[in-house]
Amino acid sequence: MKTAVIALTRGGREMAGRIVAGLENCELCEVTEGALSTIRRIWSLYDGLICVMATGIVVRAIAPLCRNKRKDPCVLVLDEKGQFVISLLSGHLGGGNELARKVVAITGGVAVITTASDVTGHTALDLWAAENNLRVQNSQRLAGVSAKLVNEGEVIFFSTLECGSLPADFKRVPEAARADIILSHGTFDPLEHPEALVLCPCHLYLGLGCNRGARAADFERAVSELCAQYHLERSAIVGIASIDLKADEAGLLQFAKENNLPIRFYSKDELNRVEGVSTSSAVLAATGAKGVAEPAAMLAAGDGTTPGQLIVRKIKWKDVTAAVAEKKLTDMAKNTANRA
Q1: Which helix or strand (DSSP H or E) is residue 197 part of?
Q2: What SS3 state is found at 176?
């Protein structure tokens, strides 16, 4: 997090100096054109703003700037003695609450945090989703489900995937119809579950093989048809893999770039060490690997020791072969509401 500290008075600048000295990647921003103009000038340049001044000044400065909690910087306000550090904006996703706790460790003051989940000790859903690499498919439901969690003490959770432990205030159920939160990399239509928060884990990896000269459009068609056939959410795909012989394949590289997906290449020896995959004598003769799409997907989805789980075996088109593997979801039980 890149952070700026802004102060107006002599005492405020002294406090600002202590904060800058105690925080990584933090710098003092000189106020040369007035507090409001300074805050507005640097608004988009930092991930966090720490303002040593009256709250009213800061509120008036940022009011016309606030747009989206996923994009706005976090804002802290504190008095020049550091007695009270207020997490004013973007407390969860923006990191304001966590930053406030770091600042009070320097000032010896009290962090003033008003987000309901932090006060009540319940899971902060937006932060929990972000830390578990879950994409929110219908963000308009986030506030409503968060409010239910605070008001009722728990939310009803349904998942199509094995996801291990969950926060204590999640109650798992076996059907989606009752759920407040649905976790799936399948194509759950939020309109069919208007009261539920739909989350998609970003944990699928494509293994791709191809004939020489395959176009980006050929890969696009193959992946689109694969996702439609197996009802996979396209946004769950986070990476591509293939054999190193395809590292200069223009169509493959273009497809990866157009979809903003990182691509990894594996040697034939690495691919041949993966067990439980489909084999092809033609592929073996051409590449020296017993298969490409399936083992490449599994290696990309693995943890460096154990390959990922193959969920779609290879499908062949005229010039493209594709398979899909999933990375195992980690333990999701961590409660992100309160941190030391």
Answers
A1: strand 197-201
A2: helix
Is residue 329 classed as helix, strand or coil in its secondary structure?
Answer: coil
Give all domains of the chain, ordered by start, each with its CATH number: 3-114 (3.40.50.11220), 125-201 (3.40.1390.40), 204-326 (3.30.420.180)
> In 3D, which of 17, 22, 7 has the Cα closest to residue 102?
22
pTM: 0.73
Contact 329, 185 (CB under 8 A): no
- Residue 160 corresponds to which amino acid? T
Per-residue pLDDT reduced to its tens digit, 152-201: 999 999 999 988 789 999 999 999 888 999 999 988 776 778 889 999 99
Residue found by looking up tokens 């961590």 in the block: 334
- The residue length of the chain stands at 340
**Contact yes or no for 43/65 (Cβ under 8 A):** yes
- Asked if residues 169 and 189 have their Cβ atoms less than 8 Å apart, the reply is no
Nearest C-alpha neighbor of 16 from the set 28, 24, 25: 28
For the segment 277-289, the average pLDDT, to the nearest whole number, is 91
Judged by DSSP in three states, 125 sits in helix
Query: What letter does residue 33 receive in the DSSP assignment?
Result: S
Q: How far is CA 295 from the centre of its chain?
A: 26
